Structures are given as C-alpha cells and as structure tokens.
Amino acid sequence: MSEQKKNAPNVVDIYLAEPRGFCAGVRRAVSLVEESLKKYGAPVFVRHEIVHNRHVIQELESKGAVFVEELCETDAAKPLIISAHGAGKAVHEQSQQKHKIVIDATCPLVAKIHNEIKKYAQEGKDIIVIGKASHPEIIGTVGQLPDYKKITIINTKEQAETVEVENPDEIAFVSQTTLSVDDTKEIIAILQKRFPKIAGLKRQDICYATTNRQNAVKALAEKAECVLIIGSQNSSNSNQLRHVAQKNGAKFACLINDAQEVDWQKIASFQKIGISAGASAPEHLVEELLKEFAKRYNNINIHHVIIAKENVKFKI
How far apart are CA 82 and CA 63, in angstroms? Predict the structure, then answer.
C-alpha cells in the first residue's frame, strides 16, 4: 500500500455536479479552431483566447493555433478567428479589411446580446450593461455601439442604486452571460424598482449553461463540505462557481486548473467533496482528478448530483 493511501481517510464521498464542463458555445468555438486547422493548415490566428482555459489553449497551440491580442500580430495571408467572447464592431471591420478569411466563433448567446443592445440603441434608449468592464465579453458588447453615448456599465448592487440615466422612461438593460445568477437577479430587481419602465429580455441574459452549472454547485454545497471547481483563474464562469459554493454552505471552495493544484493536506479533513468544472474546462480534467483521488483514498463513493440534462447544440 502506498504512503498516500496509508495516511488517507478510509472513505471519501465524491459528489459530481451535472451538468459541468464544456457548454455548447465553448464546444462550437473549439471545434471551429480545430476544423480551421484541418482545412487551412497551421498557423491559424485567434484574436484573444478562444475560451478562458489554460489546458484548451495549450492543446490548440500544440496543433498550430496562434493566440494574439491585437490584429497587428497576425499574418494577413492566414485565417483569423474571433473568440467565443465576441468582439466590437471596429475589430470585425479591421479583421475583414486585413484577412481574406475571418471566422466568427462568438457564442450565439453572446451574439444574441449584441443584437439586443443594437436594437435598444436604434430605439434611442439609455442602456445599462451589467458586467465587468474589463471582461472581453463586455468590451465586445459595448463595442457594438462605438459612437453611442447612452451606455453605462455597472457590476454591483451599490452601482445599481446610484446609476443615473438621461430618460428613466426610455431605458433598457443587458448583462454579461457568465455572471452570478443570484447577484444579477438582485441588481436587476433594484433597477426595475428604480426604473419601472426598464426593458430587458424576459429572462436575464445569463446563459442556460451558466445557470445550470451554478444551480448544480448550489446542490453540491448542500451535500459536500469541500467543493473543488476545475477552471482557469481568468474564467469568469469558473470563478462564479467557486463564489456560489462559498455562498451556499461549503466550508471550503477552491478553483484549480487541474489535479496538480489540489492541496491534498488541506482537503484531507473533509470526507464529503464536491467536484464541478467551468463551462470552458474539458472533461478529461475531471477524469484525471478522480484518478488522483483513487490513488490517495482507500474507498471512494461517487454520487451524481444531476439538476438538468443539456442537449443544446450550436451549428458550426
């Protein structure tokens, strides 16, 4: 018997969140890069990380994808792919001017927000954008209207309480798709109370995958003292899953890139451990983490915490 198992607790209960991992938008975006590499050969340039996951980026780089932040870093003779987070109007125009082949991997649910914000601008409304101003998705969303002056970005309840608009009767909101569902509901409730005529989608703009994954982690936190979220530090949806676990009862919640980042000494005192993965984290990282548990624990009981079945597919 290994030293790891000799010193390990006899039994650990592992609760696996379902759904977890890749959403339809991420799957489509990654597939677009892979299919482009097959069709056109390496290199294929991608503006910004196609999705926010270190392992996905490294795997695509090994196949010939080149990730850049600015168009000046690309070769005009090669294809360019716009990331799943989307991009502003100016980026699309400059891309088309420079590259013969431009492939838009923007998540269709993000593109829906783009269409919505453009519609509100055509109606002359003041627009409140709920999200993080520095996040690529918000930069792309606001960038749909580079000359429109009546846009305000907010990200907290306090900002919702104090934001001012030109015409309270002609106002609308959109939101980033990867925010905390509960926090965003609270922000929207404040806006609706302050501006009764505010327009927005019948459901807030948080996507189905974000909602499902957060609900699954809520269920995990009710069962597990410790929750491990697989995802990269720059992934908004992964960070929100950790936040949800902490907010809903987990004694310890941690965001890890992979099994190598687990602090095994720190989690040794927990006998009920929940596991989920952000929408940009591949399933093989979950499988590798389970293998590490099998090496270190004598007995593992795996429980599936299923809150929804996803069958959404986006065409390439």
Answer: 18
Task: Say which of 137, 158, 166, 287 is annotated catalytic.
Answer: 137
Tokens of 267: 């989690």
| Contact call for residues 95 and 149 (beta carbons, < 8 A) | no
Please list the residues that pair with 102 across neighbouring strands: 80
Task: Indicate if 137 belongs to the active site.
Answer: yes
Place of tokens 């927000």: 113
Rounded distance, CA 251 to CA 255, Å?
14
pLDDT digits 0-9 by tens, 214-239: 999 999 999 999 999 999 999 999 99
Does 108-194 match 3-22+208-306 at the fold level? yes
Side-chain-side CA neighbours of residue 60 (13 Å):
28
* Residue count (the chain): 316
Q: Which CATH number fits domain 108-194: 3.20.20.70, 3.40.1010.20, 3.40.50.10150, 3.30.1360.120?
A: 3.40.1010.20
